[in-house]
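FAQ

Q: What does a record look like?
A: Structure on top, sequence underneath. For example:
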């Protein structure tokens, strides 16, 4: 590693104790020892700090009139796993095939439910042939047509929050159950590919 002249000046100007012995120390370990475990802990800590910074940035962007009510998700009278699903839906972080491909993983993006179009949340929950039939059978087609027009997951969730509590519950449960059914079909599809 080469130091710039300014860096070298700063290092040389630091006061040192002439009576102490120099020794290498890894300050991320209480004993000063480097280990793969201590490096891993540092990496995880840094990743969590970066995530927190990104989350606070997104919260700062939510200020003003168009603020998204994140805490409202956690107050819903639903099981925690469903609330977590809604939170991930709002963040567009569900493991739908287009999201996985966007993160750089090579995979097939075709919807595992209808095997026709690329799977993103909009397709999976509102445009897939199978889910359209579910909305129709539950006599909620008018809600599906309203939600399919939303431009983002947050907008979709805000639209659901405008509905009466009973309708909201039905929509949340429908979305959650469809996600669960999709995951089962997806796992079976992957299992068949592995057996070939």
């Amino acid at each position: 590693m080469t130091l710039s002249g300014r860096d070298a000046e700063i290092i040389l100007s630091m006061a040192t104790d002439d009576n102490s012995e120099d020794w290498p120390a890894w300050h991320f370990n209480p004993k000063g020892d480097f280990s793969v475990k201590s490096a891993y802990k540092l990496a995880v800590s840094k990743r969590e700090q970066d995530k927190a910074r990104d989350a606070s940035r997104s919260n700062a962007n939510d200020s003003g009139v168009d603020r998204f009510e994140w805490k409202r998700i956690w107050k819903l009278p639903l099981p925690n796993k469903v609330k977590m699903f809604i939170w991930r839906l709002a963040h567009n972080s569900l493991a739908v095939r287009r999201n996985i491909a966007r993160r750089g993983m090579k995979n097939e993006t075709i919807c595992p439910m209808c095997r026709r179009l690329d799977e993103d949340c909009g397709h999976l929950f509102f445009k897939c042939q199978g889910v359209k039939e579910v909305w129709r059978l539950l006599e909620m087609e008018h809600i599906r047509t309203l939600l399919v027009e939303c431009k983002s997951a947050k907008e979709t969730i805000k639209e659901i929050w405008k509905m009466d509590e009973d309708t909201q519950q039905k929509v949340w449960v429908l979305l959650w159950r469809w996600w669960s059914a999709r995951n089962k079909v997806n796992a079976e599809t992957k299992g068949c590919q592995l057996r070939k």
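Q: Is there anything notable about this one?
A: The CA atoms of residues 180 and 186 lie 10 Å apart.
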